[in-house]
Amino acid sequence: MSSTKTRRFTLGDSVAPASPSVLESILFFLAYWGPPRLRSRDVMASLYLQVDWAVAVNALVWFGVFLWVFNEFNAYALVERRIPRAPASVVAAVLLGFVLMSSAVVSVSPLLTLYKGIQLGLTVLFGFFWVLRFGVSDVLRRLTRCACFVSISLLVAGFALPGVVWIGPRLMGGTVGNSGAVSALLLVALLAGASLDGKTKNQAAFAAGAILLALSQTRTAYVAVVLGVIVAAAAGPRGVGARRVAVLASAVVPLVLLTEVWRGIASYIIRDSASLSTMSDRVPLWRTLFAQALANSPVLGMGFYASRSLTLAYNPGIGTAHSAYVEVAIGAGVLGVLALSLTIVLVARSLARHRMLADTHSTHRNATVAAALTATCLVLGLTSEEMVTGGPTSLTFFAMCAVAADLVIAASKDADYGRA
């Protein structure tokens, strides 16, 4: 499936990137979306390794990702006889995958833990080789297009499949997708400078994302968008949409606060003020899970993605830890926390270095999009495990491991060339 065009062996190389084939583009989209499950089942089914058509399709997609990654590695190792050099952030993310896989030895469902750990490792390598082969601009544009398509699909499903995507008054997405997360990623990408090749398309995508975000009533997604806009406005070049939104908000918000309109807006956004202190019962759940993990296996954890036996004991309606950070902490213990923390620090360090090296560099807009998306993913991970278990947030975040490194290496080379 790979192009025969000259390959880059190091991120930041000046070799012109290739273009993905149609099959590769489809594979990227399927890895991004999940794909959707379109069904509900017993939350313990995965723990007991019960396979249905949705599980089979998911496994088939990730087997396709494995074949693609293996094909890319094979092309470098056997054909080119050179191994591409991975940056520290990618190495740290792959290490995280190995740590999650190693927690299978203490998991109540070793095969499930192993599968999810392998999936995370494949996500990292898929993002790395994609950036290496096709470049930063392609991956950022493709992530934006995927978020746009999924957002529109969720809005259409709101009319065509209301029983699937609506939960009470909220269009949450259900088994089709995470409405709050996808709409937040789309809006932040567009406001940070990503483009869908046309002003009209950008405006239509922005409208779709804004409507979906409003209908989802996902508080974490609102916070993620605000932080993403702040990061883009602070780090972005002149003319970036986030700056215009920040200026507009600074003028409009004070006026709204002087009226009674803000009470209605706040009521709609907050939904249930009584649930804020416990983050919709997540805080007591996390305390329970941490107490169990610390008492039983603080170093290796209790098995990644196998916490549902504990969450169900706390609340029969909860199947996961509802936080990427908590899922890693209780699933893979101290080692998992260290690996994830190292990954985040290295990505943030690369983006910060790029900011210092290349304020007016040609990659500045891409770096702004990458920084804003990274911040958005980190916030979304607070109340959803999807950042580390596959899907839009996961592929976006782990692709940034390679994107951030590529940007800073390219800027460093240009800076060295300028001083020479």
Written description of the protein model:
The mean pLDDT is 89. Helix content is 68%, strand content 1%. It has one domain. It is mostly helical. The chain has a two-stranded antiparallel ribbon. β1 and β2 form a beta hairpin.
Strand segment count: 2
Biggest sheet strand order reads 1-2
Largest sheet: 2 strands, antiparallel
- Give the percentage of residues in beta strands: under 5%
Q: Gyration radius, to the nearest Å?
A: 21 Å
Q: Number of folding domains?
A: 1
- The share of residues in helices is 55-70%
Q: State the order of secondary-structure elements, H for helix, E for strand.
A: HHHHHHEEHHHHHHHHHH
Instruction: Tell me the overall shape.
Output: globular
Distance N to C terminus:
40 Å
Mean pLDDT: 89
Structural class, judged by helices and strands?
Answer: mainly alpha
The DSSP helix count reads 16
**Poorly predicted runs:** none
